[in-house]
Amino acid sequence: MNVELTLNGEAVSWESEPHEFLTELLRRHGLIGTKRGCESGDCGACAVLLDGEEVPSCLVLAAQAHGHEVTTIEGLGSWERPHPIQEAFVDGTAVQCGYCTPGMVIAAKAYLDRKGGGPLSEREARELLAGHVCRCTGYVKPIAAVLRAAEALGDPRSAGEEERA
Ligand code: FES
Ligand code: FES
């Protein structure tokens, strides 16, 4: 079937087999920031936004995204103009191998959008990252990065964020 969706703000139409999951559809088209991990909904590496909600793309059939809006890590920011959450992870050295990072950034984006900005409590930051497995950082720095990002996004000086999202 042809899967038509809005991907990172642009309309795309891609061929897909009925059994294909969204992770694979994205990665086949070069969006490799969405990682393949457990493929059972347990690690968070494959997280994307589906109509603004965080979902594990390994459990979403590509066909289920038909007619919907999908945002991947590539849609949040760029090298030249990173999203404040991406900046907070980099500046806070919350990235080691980086495999879990896109999923964590997506989780923070979904949560902060829903909440309408920062600041967050440490408990909230821990909870929003629950289900995101990291084998490198011990979680301390990612939690700190999420708290810093929430603060930055609550700051009127980061008002340009919406254009980047
Ligand atoms: S690969 Fe999807 S949750 Fe682990
Ligand atoms: S930074 Fe390596 S898995 Fe999280």
Describe this structure in words.
The structure is a single chain. The protein folds into two domains: 2-75, Ubiquitin-like (UB roll) (Roll); 84-164, DNA polymerase, domain 1 (Orthogonal Bundle). The protein is of the alpha+beta class. The two termini are 29 Å apart. The mean pLDDT is 93. It is built from six helices and five strands. Helices cover 34% and strands 14% of the residues. It binds FE2/S2 (inorganic) cluster (2 copies). One FE2/S2 (inorganic) cluster is lined by residues 95-101, 134-137.
Essential attributes:
Ubiquitin-like (UB roll), alpha+beta, DNA polymerase, domain 1, 6 helices, 165 residues, 2 domains, binds FE2/S2 (inorganic) cluster
CATH architecture of the largest domain: Orthogonal Bundle
Number of helices: 6
The biggest beta sheet reads:
5 strands, mixed
* Poorly predicted runs: none
CATH topology of the largest domain: DNA polymerase, domain 1
| Percent range of helical residues | 25-40%
What molecules are bound to this protein? FE2/S2 (inorganic) cluster
